[in-house]
Design goal:
The protein is mainly alpha-helical. 76% of the residues lie in helices and 0% in strands. The radius of gyration is 18 Å and the shape is globular. The protein starts with a helix and ends with a helix. Keywords: Membrane, Transmembrane, Transmembrane helix.
């Protein structure tokens, strides 16, 4: 588990970096979230192709690989849609319904061992998400896109643990990128933006950060159980708050800070439990 912590910290810092580059594209340059999502998969596939292990194509015959890739594609599309109008920290706090979904799925379907204390901390983290989203008549509906993204991503996290023995992290990353890019190809081509160097640079940065983050995530899942890894996904919130402030000048409101504190505190405490 100790080896997984630094790997997860780096991975969970890269993913918000990719999403922040996507937000610059969608909110500042008018690029469609559908193009941003598709370009991540297409560019990531091209970057991994030279390093692909032999026999990776055989994984494409497994239906579970396709379900996992669809979950990732839907999750990234939803979070990019949310980031058009929602600040990075708030979107990621709502997105963190994902580790809770992953925790529950790992217990139910993977039969991983849990303790009452770890379950209580998971519920506490969910209360933090509720503080951020604050369901009600005045809820920003765009935040619900981030909740949907987290739900899809939680499914993806658990399936990553479930399928980790099928192939190397490199092969699994390649298949998820290839399938998602193939499925989203028509939508991506229909929303091609006008070419410029800033658009091209941010598109590549978004894809590179996302691909490397998810690749490292798979390495972490090979060495630790999903119920232990899931709380470490909360590291994303630290990077999300920092990037939101540096790049967009956004700082969370009081309720969001309270939610962030609950989410991070519960997640890190759960990760420290034996």
């Amino acid at each position: 588990m100790q080896r997984a912590i630094p790997i997860m910290f780096i991975a969970m810092s890269l993913i918000p970096g990719g999403d922040s580059a996507g937000k610059l594209l969608t909110s500042g340059m008018g690029v469609s979230p559908l193009f941003v999502a598709w370009s991540r998969f297409a560019i990531g596939t091209a970057l991994l192709l030279p390093f692909l292990p032999a026999g990776s194509g055989a994984l494409l015959r497994n239906w579970r690989i396709w379900v996992r890739a669809v979950s990732l594609a839907l999750g990234i599309t939803c979070i990019q849609t949310a980031l058009q109008t929602v600040d990075v920290a708030t979107a990621f706090a709502a997105f963190f319904i994902g580790p809770i979904i992953s925790y529950v799925l790992a217990v139910v379907f993977l039969r991983e061992a849990v303790t009452p204390l770890r379950s209580a901390l998971t519920v506490l983290g969910f209360c933090g998400v509720l503080l951020v989203v604050r369901p009600g008549s005045d809820t920003n509906l765009d935040v619900l896109w981030a909740v949907a993204a987290g739900t899809f991503y939680g499914t993806f996290l658990t399936m990553s643990r479930w399928l980790s023995a099928l192939g190397s992290p490199m092969a699994l990353t390649f298949t998820q990128l290839l399938i998602a890019g193939f499925l989203m190809l028509p939508l991506g081509l229909l929303h091609l933006p006008a070419f410029s160097l800033p658009v091209a640079g941010l598109t590549v940065a978004s894809a590179l950060c996302s691909m490397l983050g998810n690749l490292l995530l798979l390495y972490a899942y090979r060495i630790s159980p999903a119920t232990r890894i899931a709380p470490l996904v909360y590291f994303q919130l630290i990077a999300a708050v920092a990037l939101g402030w540096i790049l967009f000048g956004d700082l969370p409101d009081v309720f969001t800070w309270m939610g962030l504190a609950l989410i991070i505190g519960a997640g890190l405490t759960s990760a420290r439990l034996r």
